[in-house]
Amino acid sequence: MIKSNVSLPAAYTGVLLWVMACCMSVQLCAQTFPTGFSRVQVASVSNPTVMAFAPDGRIFVAQQNGALRVIKNGTLLATPFLQLSVNSSGERGLIGIALDPNFSTNQYIYLYYTLPDGSRNRISRFTGNGDVVVSGSEVVVLNLDPLSSATNHNGGAMHFKNGLLYVAIGENANGANAQNLDTYHGKLLRINPNGSIPAGNPFTTGSEQRRRVWAYGLRNPYTFDIQPGTGRVFLNDVGQSTWEEINDATTGGRNFGWPTAEGNSTNANFINPVFAYPHGSGDGRGCAITGGVFFNPTSTNYPAQYTGRYFYQDLCNRWINVLDLSGATPVRSPFATGLGNNALSIDVGLDGNLYYLERSVGALFRIIYTVNNAPAIVTQPVSQTVTAGQPVTFSVAATGTAPLSYQWQRNNVNITGATSASYTIANTQASHAGTYRVIVSNSAGSVTSSNATLTVNAFNAPPAAQIVTPAAGALYSGGQTIQFSGSATDAEQGTLPASAFTWFVDFHHDTHNHDGPAVASGVTSGSFVIPTSGETSDNVWYRLYLVVTDAGGLRDTVYRDISPRKSTISLVTQPAGMQVTLDGQPVTTPTSDLSVEGIQRSIGVISPQTFNGQTYVFDRWLHGGSATQTISTPVNDVTYTAVYRVDTGLRNPDNPPTTVSGLGYAYYEGTWTALPDFSTLTPVEVGGVYSLTLAPRNLQNNYGFRYTGFVNVPADGSYTFYLNSDDGSRLLIGTTAVVNNDGVHTAQEASGTIGLRQGKHQLTILYFQATSSSVLTASWAGPGIAKQGIPSAAYSRLPVLPSRAMASTDDNMYTESPGGLVTYPNPATRALFVDITAEEPGAATVSLVSLHGHVVKSQHFAELPAGVKSLTLGLEDVSNGLYLLRVEYAGQVRSRTVSVLH
């Protein structure tokens, strides 16, 4: 089953910070580091995405909502450096930052963010003035390609190397983008600081996008790092269903294989990861790699063994691992476990310590190293004010030689049993008010924390929240609008006003969650729309939260889960057992995938491919449409069948198959049960016409033929195609269609005469309205060429045209007459207009039938009055090509051929 782990971690909004507080003591106790290492909180920053260190010691931290914050001397400054207007849906927002190599003198900061309308991501340069931006200093460096409706897989990481800016970009939840060099999606770019194309990039010709590409075949490289000194580039690419990758992009032009490959591959065209770890639970396994950094600080007090190693982290399983790169094969070791949820953006600070962000609690943490020392307090307990009856927790973080012992005191008196790094009072009363501190000790000594004051206010009953809609057990489909409403009461205030309401939505995937659609707060009701693109796994659901806050500051939180409706998409091939693609990844048929209804999926083919010793090329999908197409998961289970045929070389006009008088031919599906052996047939010249005779079998008086092949045209001019039977009957050529050697598609009806330019042309001829079942011969002629035969073995019956239908077709289907059929335009683009005339009322059905006999579009019109009727058939979802138009009206059937050319 194909699953997708989105890379940018889900944001617990500010209202959840108080929920997480009760978990802090558990997290502190559960953390495991090598001896001497510990974690210290630097500052609180809600919804962080990425950080960067300034040469003067300041730390810039981006928030998803567009604010760029400054942490100075360990304190988060109240005034943001800047506040951008961004679209922060899903994984969008302010998601990338890089400081200019000459930041100390020019104060340039480069930011990667999503425009407010969500149309695209942009890279811009801003100029600082101390701790704030210079107003109006934005200079657009590069506007990236337009975004789809999918809000995930944006990438965003940026770093400078040798004065050039490297930018990592996700494939916007469309795997095909990763292999398309003419889009920025799914790439690592290398550009000049002004956005122009530098010398030395691997692709020197073609589109602007192609010439900026440094590496490609990436899914969502949310982070990467460049090793000081060596310039080695490691890309951390978030995987889909199986593997998380660390890729070496030091050399330009490398293709890392997505979406064809995930993890290691045997395909020689792809570069395998330096290291890949599998999905799953526990240390060393995960769901999304969200950070990685080379540890090469100028100075550090970390043990020397860590210098030159690569630290990386995962979103889900709360660990940091480290790679030893000194040998031929990287060696993984655990470093830290039991950390907080949703960690990302690990980096090395100017002080030689590791830093990383945690979105679950909205904070920046530093990992420090001390050994053979007496305890030292690194995070002091904080004074708190609570309402009687509510819980309260005091916590401390300390370093020193393990093991550390803790003893909490109230008003300088030991509290029995309070011997952990945190102390919780589950039901606070007025008698608990006072000062709290902790004594931390080890074999080398002890230290006493500062006092934290507990203030207990009078009892205040907490509010009670209720989600009214959607109802319990509610289901959703992609594209659906979800209406929500709620109510809340409070013992002191009664019914709470709308201003007390805060709503938000989380999108849950497997064991982790991401930001859901944006919803309004300060309202008692509203709505949000379920996206139709992005995550394709069925192991998902939405959780709607309602948080209400009373005048005393107490809150009540409730939530309602909304589960998906699901259908099964089955993929099969003819012949059975061949490969197709699902969301860009190869799969062997038959295969089935459970999918959320209304979610867009991509199905495609692999053509050519070798199967059972033969080379096959794609012929068609039985349901119609292009080789690669986006489908919306339907309400009911569905099977899509890809038809392949043995490759005859027909698709390459420069290497045509067997020819007769310069005409290559192929046999298409018809009444014969097996492919005729053309090698045993000898062309016969009769009056300058060369033909291969193959008597038709089981044919009735009314039938149609299709021919596909190539013609070699000696000179520009008008060429005529003929069809005759051996008894002299004149037969009508329905349509002759040619894809010219300049790529222009043309079609000529009825006359069989068409203008052609010199060169090879792919040719398709449809024959209808035969009046004889005798042997047929076909030929063509034009300037500089006498009549040349078309082998009759190339003909095949169109099974969609039964004799009763053809018998009711007008004798001349292209002539307007009473009871006739008129269509326009032809070729048609967005719509086909059909005029029909009948003497009596009746319902009408208008259908388009493919050359292979499959109905690709059908529309029924209710009871219509007699007379001339003008009907419209939309063509937006119909692929280019030739079709048979069938109109059933008042007991009659009218038919003619039409061409669709968008």
TrEMBL record:
InterPro entries hit by this protein: 6-blade_b-propeller_TolB-like, Glc/Sorbosone_DH, Ig-like_dom, Ig-like_dom_sf, Ig-like_fold, Ig_sub, PA14/GLEYA, PA14_dom
Residue ranges constituting the PA14 domain according to the UniProt record: 658-794
Domain Ig-like: 375-455
SUPFAM superfamilies the record matches: Anthrax protective antigen, Immunoglobulin, Soluble quinoprotein glucose dehydrogenase
Record-linked Pfam families: GSDH, Ig_3, PA14
PROSITE patterns, alphabetized: IG_LIKE, PA14, PROKAR_LIPOPROTEIN
Residues annotated as transmembrane: none
NCBIfam families: Por_Secre_tail (TIGR04183)
PANTHER family: ALDOSE SUGAR DEHYDROGENASE YLII (PTHR19328:SF75), HEDGEHOG-INTERACTING PROTEIN (PTHR19328)
UniProt protein name: PQQ-dependent sugar dehydrogenase
